[in-house]
Specification:
alpha+beta, 6-stranded antiparallel beta sheet, 2 helices, 7-stranded mixed beta sheet, about 375 residues
């Protein structure tokens, strides 16, 4: 038996945490970069040698509401960390409220302080990330005012000094359109099963736009989760409904349907559940939710969530039928990366990655100190 000393164990643990922190930061920057290019939430960053900058935000916001802007800075080892300055320029109608960091969104940004003066917000890196490819994140909460239909562009510029004294810079910008908020609701109907020789379950989601504005194609989306899980990603009709799921969390589905005020669209799910499924003997609580658009602002939150139950406590039929693979079975879901199904797969994946990008800064900030 080989025994490790306490010092050796602590050293190994520190290396593992640093490696995990580096991977997390790199994933966050890659997700942000991919989402910027694919969805147009922000212009691609212009990078200098050894320094990169990305700013991301929602691309639409109602006037008078708060906008969360995430800034991700990447730096090579040649960059002197404490020399990094990040200046965000706010156009007319946009004002700084506070930084939005930490698990509850109310803590100071751990990578360094941010100070507002007139139409700029300056953030300084105060610590050196203990990784080969360090990155730094700042989240700003901004108030946006303006006429419906107008656009505001928020730009950020990062400057730094390399070990040899060379000055470098990188910049990025995001453009936000001021809109009214549409109230989107969800309900479920025609719940049945499991029944018949193939133990088929069926249910239909109804997404309704209560107005006052159109919901563009690609923005009529819903989330679904089940406890316990096991229904997989498949079985939705019509074919224009596409779903994907990260390694954890709910399934994200897009309808690719434009909804005018008062209009609604349906997504019906039909699945055959095999007799050897782990769901048998249980009652599964299904939860589905929608965004008001833009998400998180305006609308009536009372119609955003629906719950229902699927009862698998009866005896299953053994007449055959196969269900779609459950998460973890190799075709998608837990352990399967980002499985995507349906015709408009790229659009749905892009929307989902945009959401990931918007949360990447907060994720990095809340986890990096524990991992690093």
């Amino acid at each position: 038996m080989i025994m490790e000393s306490g010092a050796e164990t602590r050293g190994r643990d520190r290396q593992q945490r640093r490696a995990a922190g580096s991977a997390l930061r790199r994933i966050g920057v890659l997700v942000a970069a991919f989402a910027l290019t694919l969805t147009g939430l922000a212009a691609p960053a212009h990078a200098a040698d050894g320094l990169t900058a990305f700013i991301t935000s929602s691309d639409q916001i109602p006037s008078g509401k708060s906008l969360s802007a995430s800034i991700l800075i990447g730096a090579d080892q040649d960059i002197v960390p404490q020399s990094i300055r990040v200046v965000t320029t706010l156009p007319q109608g946009v004002t700084f409220e506070r930084t939005e960091c930490g698990p509850d969104g109310n803590a100071a940004c751990p990578d360094g302080p941010c100070e507002a003066a007139a139409s700029t917000v300056t953030c300084a890196v105060a610590v050196a990330a203990p990784t080969r490819e360090p990155s730094y994140a700042f989240n700003l909460l901004l108030r946006v005012q303006g006429a419906v239909g107008s656009r505001v562009t928020i730009s950020t510029t990062a400057t730094a000094e390399k070990q040899d004294g060379t000055q470098v810079s990188a910049n990025s910008e995001t453009t936000v359109r001021i809109v009214q908020s549409s109230d989107v609701g969800i309900k479920v109907e025609k719940i049945s099963g499991p029944s018949g020789p193939k133990n088929v379950v069926r249910y239909t989601y109804v997404l309704h736009n209560y107005g006052p504005l159109d919901v563009a194609a690609g923005n009529a989306v819903f989330f679904e989760s089940g406890k316990p899980s096991g229904l997989g990603l498949y079985g939705f009709k019509p074919a224009k409904v596409s779903c994907f799921q990260d390694t954890t969390g709910p399934m994200f589905c897009g309808t690719e349907t434009k909804l005018a005020p008062g209009q609604e669209t349906r997504a019906t799910r039909e699945l055959a559940v095999p007799a050897d499924s782990e769901l048998w003997g249980k009652k599964v609580t299904m939860t589905a939710s929608v965004f008001d658009y833009p998400p998180g602002v305006g609308g009536d939150p009372s119609n955003n969530v629906v719950q229902f139950e699927l009862d698998f406590t009866g005896k299953p039929s053994t007449g055959g039928g196969t269900a779609a693979p459950a998460p973890g079975d190799g075709d998608g879901g837990e352990g399967g990366g980002l499985p995507v199904t349906g015709a408009p797969a790229l659009a749905v994946a892009g929307a989902g990655l945009a959401l990931l990008a918007l949360g990447a800064g907060a994720l990095l900030l809340t986890r990096r100190r524990r991992l690093g």
